[in-house]
Amino acid sequence: MPISLHSHSGQYCKHAKGTLRQVVEAALSKHFSIYGLSEHMPRTRPQDLYPEETQLAMQPSDTDSQFRAFLVEARQLQTEFKGRIELLVGMETELIHKDSLDHAATLVRELNLDYLVGSVHHVHQIPIDFDEAMYAQAEAKAFELASETGRSNGISATECLFRDYFDAQHELLVRLKPAVVGHFDLVCMFRPNHGLSKETWDRIRRNVDVIAEYGGIVEINSRAWKKGLPGAYPQKSILEVMQSKGVRFCLSDDSHGPDDVGMHYSKLHAYLLQVGVNEIHFPQSDQSGAMRVASIPNVTSHPFWTQFK
C-alpha cells in the first residue's frame, strides 16, 4: 500500500544504478501500490553537468534527449504495469542559475507530466549534495557573497549557506508550486549538527507557509538515513512546524536504483509513528487533466510494513 514519489534509475541518471524497468519491478516486488518515476530535469549549460556526466563527455543536449527518452519509456511502463502498480511520471527540478525556473516551467507546460518534485540541489550554482568538497565550496561562496553585501555579521559560512539555501527554495516554491516538495532540508546533509538560527527558522517558516497556502505535499524522505542523518528529511523539529500549519505529507525512498527501492522503510515506519503521521497524500489527475490530491489513511497500520521488519 504505501508509496514512494521520488526515484531515479541509472539508465537516465548517471549517478544512479540499474534500469527504469528494474526499478519498477523492484517496487512491484515490494508491494508498493503507487510509485513515482521522477528523473532530473535536463540542464542547459555545460558547467551544470555533474562530474560523472563530464567524464562521459555528455553535453547539455544529451541531458535533454535522455530525459525525453525517459518519458517515453516511463509512459510505456505505466501502460504495461497498469492494474498491478500505479506509476506516476514526473520530473525533479533543478535550480542552478537565473533561467532554471523558466526552463522548468516551460517543460511542465510542454510535457504533460503527472506531477513535479520541487527540489534544490545547488546553491550559488554549486552542488551541495554531491560530496563534502563541493559543499565546502558552496559554503565559501555563500560567505563571500554575504561579506560583500555586509550580511555576514560574524556568522559562519555554514550559516550563510543555510540561509541562502532556504531563500533559493522559497524562489522555487513561489514560482513553480510543485505538487511534491523534495528533501526539504537537504542542506543539512553534510552539516547535521548545525543548529538552526532564528534567521534560518524565519526562512523555514516562510517556506512552510508558502507550501501550506498552495497545497503542496512534503515528502518524508528515507534517503537521509543512507547519508548518515539521524532522521528523515525533513527533520523532526521542521516536520512539527509543518504539522502545525496543516501541511500534507507523502513518502519517498528517493531510490537511485532497484536496490534502493524501499530503502530504510523500516526506519521510516518508526519515524512516522514517532512524529504522529498516519495519513499520506499523493497527486492524482482527474479526467479534465486538473490536479487533485488523494489520501491514504491509517498508513502506519498497513501490513505493507511487515516486510521491512
UniProtKB/TrEMBL annotation:
Leader peptide range in chain numbering: none
GO cellular component: cytoplasm
One Pfam family this sequence matches: PHP
Reactions mediated catalytically: L-histidinol phosphate + H2O = L-histidinol + phosphate
Molecular function terms from GO: histidinol-phosphatase activity
Enzyme Commission number(s) from the entry: 3.1.3.15
Alphabetical UniProt keywords: Amino-acid biosynthesis, Histidine biosynthesis, Hydrolase
Top-level lineage group: Eukaryota
The PHP domain, residue ranges: 5-222
GO biological process, one term: L-histidine biosynthetic process
This protein's pathway: Amino-acid biosynthesis; L-histidine biosynthesis; L-histidine from 5-phospho-alpha-D-ribose 1-diphosphate: step 8/9
Family: Belongs to the PHP hydrolase family. HisK subfamily.
NCBIfam families attached to this UniProt entry: hisJ_fam
Name of the protein this chain belongs to: Histidinol-phosphatase
